[in-house]
Amino acid sequence: MRTRTAIATVILFTGLAVGCSGGSDDPTVAKATDTPPASPTPSPTPSPSQETYKLGDTVDVSTADGKFTAAALAYKDRGIPDVAELLQADQKWAALEVKVCNKDAEGFGVSPFVWSLAYADGARVEATHMTGNELPRPLYPLDAKVKAGDCVRGNVLFQVPKAGRPERVLYSPDVLDEPVEWTAAK
User: Fold this and answer.
1) Boundaries of each DUF4352 domain copy (predicted)?
2) Which pTM value belongs to this model?
3) Beta-bridge partners for 59
4) Which pLDDT value is given to residue 186?
5) Rounded distance between C-alpha atoms, residue 58 and residue 51, angstroms
6) Burial code of 88-110, b = ≥16 C-beta within 10 A, e = fewer?
């Protein structure tokens, strides 16, 4: 009899725990070219979809604080001179052209440091910030505020290995649980 009571209690609490989980007000991500659904949308999910976008795709991001878009437009790793001779012998400069637009949120800050490159072997390269006339212009701002209706575009710089190419571009602002990803393949 005690066994049946214990099993019934476990089943009851498991059912309550599953039934009580609900939506959240965390951000969602969708392609800017997606058409809105005809019916009301459910509460946002905590992370972007697992879809990987192509370079040039613009992604809509919705958070509890508002909406913005992000785009990894182009990747270049040839012809960028070694400014101030900072690179090691097995490295080169790479520039990632990016754009972020504030659709309706209160002003927010942008930084190149939320962008990174991921390689097939699991290595990740974080952005660096350099200045110099030889670097591809415009450079993405180090710290800028973006008011509603405004955009920021520029090149984020990376010190990357001479051999190989990154597999993915990652955008990881604090408002997202998981990064938005673009393929970096040619």
Assistant:
1) 53-177
2) 0.72
3) 31, 70
4) 67
5) 13
6) eeeebbbbbbbebbbeebeebeb
Element (H, E) at 73: strand 66-76
Per residue in 18-66, pLDDT (tens digit) is 344 344 445 555 554 444 444 343 333 334 455 889 999 999 998 887 8
- How many CA atoms are closer than 13 Å to the CA of 184, on its beta-carbon side? 24
Cβ-based neighbours of 185, under 8 Å, separated by 6 or more: 165, 167
- Identity of the residue numbered 19: G
The per-residue pLDDT for range 116-155, each reduced to its tens digit, is: 999 999 999 999 977 666 678 899 998 889 999 999 999 9
Q: How far apart are CA 140 and CA 19, in angstroms?
A: 46
Map out the domains of the chain with their CATH numbers.
24-183 (2.60.40.1240)
**Bridge-based pairing state of the strands 144-146 and 28-31:** unpaired
Q: What are 153-180's pLDDT values in tens digits?
A: 999 999 999 988 999 999 999 888 899 9
